Amino acid sequence: MEKAIKKYFPIFLLPTMIAFTIGFIVPFVYGVFLSFCKFTTVTDWKWRGLQNYTKIFFVNGKLDTTFLHSLWYTALFTIVCVLIINVLSFAIAMLLTKGIKGTNLFRTVFFLPNLIGGIVLSYIWLMIFNSVLANMSKTIVSSQWTAFWGMVVVVCWQQIGYMMIIYIAGIQNIPGELIEAAKIDGANSLQLLRHVTLPMLMPTITICTFLTLTNGFKLFDQNLALTGGNPGQMSELLALNIYNTMYGTTGWQGVGQAKAVIFFILVALISLLQNKLTTSKEVES
C-alpha cells in the first residue's frame, strides 16, 4: 500500500500543483514584472526599470514621505495592537479558566466580534465614535491620532476574543500535575504565573503574537471604512496606501505595484520569522 502511494503520489499532487501555479505563482511572477513597467492593463505595458521604485520616494526630484509615513504609522499601529490584544486576551483567558460560572457564555460573547466583517464592524464603530466626539466638536478624522486610536479600539475589540480562545487552549494543555507540584513546593500565584504558566505557554504566545503582528501589518478593511486615510492621508496604513496609489492616481499603477512588492517582502519576512520562532519554541517545549 505504501509503495503504491509513493508510486502514484505525483499523479495526485499534479492537479493541486497546476492550480497553485495558475492561481498563485504565475500572477505573482507577472506582478513582480509589472512593478518594473508603466501599465494600464496587464497586457498594455511599457518597461520602465527601477523608475517605479524611485518614484515611491521621489516625485519630480523632491522627497515624497507619503509611503514612509504609512510605513512608520503602520509599524506603530501594529506594535500597539500586538501589546494590547495579547495582554488583554491572555488576562481574560486566565480568568475564564478559573472555573467561574458562565464561562462558556463569556467565551461566546468575547468571540462574537471576530465573526463580524471588518467593513460592517468599522461602520458601526464609526457611528459610535462620531456620536461621542461630536460633543467635543470633533470627528474620528479630526487628526491622525484620533483616527489612530479609533482603529486600535476597533481592531482590539475584534481580535481579543479570537486570541483568547487560543490562549485558553494553551492554558488547558498545561499538565495539572505540574501546577500541583509547584503548589506543593510553596509557589504562590505570581510564581506559578512566572515559572510555570508563561514558560509552558511560550509556543502559544509566539503564535498569538505573530498572528496579531501580521493582522495589524496587513490591515485594510477597517482603515478604509473607518478613516479612509483622512485627514490628508495621515491615517493611511500600508495596504490602503497601496490601494490608493493603484486606483486613485492615473498612470501610477506601476508605482502601486512596486509598493505591493515591497509590502509582500515585509510580510514574507514577518511570516518567516514567525515560522522560525514558532518551530523553535515547539522544539524547546
Question: Can you lay out the helices and strands and say which pair or pack?
Answer:
Layout lengths: L1 H33 L2 E5 L2 E4 L3 H7 E2 L2 E2 L2 H31 L6 H9 L6 H16 L10 H29 L3 H9 L4 H12 L1 H16 L3 H6 L11 H11 L4 H32 L1
Antiparallel strand pairs: 1-2, 3-4
Helix pairs in contact: 2-12, 3-6, 3-9, 4-6, 5-6, 6-9, 9-12, 11-12
Instruction: Enumerate how many helices there are, as a single number.
Output: 12
| Spatial strand sequence of the major β-sheet | 1-2
Structural class: mainly alpha
Task: Provide the low-confidence segments as ranges.
Answer: none
Q: What is the mean predicted local confidence, pLDDT?
A: 86
**Biggest sheet features:** 2 strands, antiparallel
Note down, in words, how this protein is organized.
The protein is built from 12 helices and 4 strands; from the N terminus they run αββαββαααααααααα. The mean pLDDT is 86. It is globular. The two termini are 35 Å apart. It has helices spanning 2-34, 51-57, 66-96, 103-111, 118-133, 144-172, 176-184, 189-200, 202-217, 221-226, 238-248, 253-284; strands at residues 37-41, 44-47, 58-59, 62-63.
Short description:
With 285 residues, this protein is mostly helical. It has twelve helices and four strands; from the N terminus they run αββαββαααααααααα.
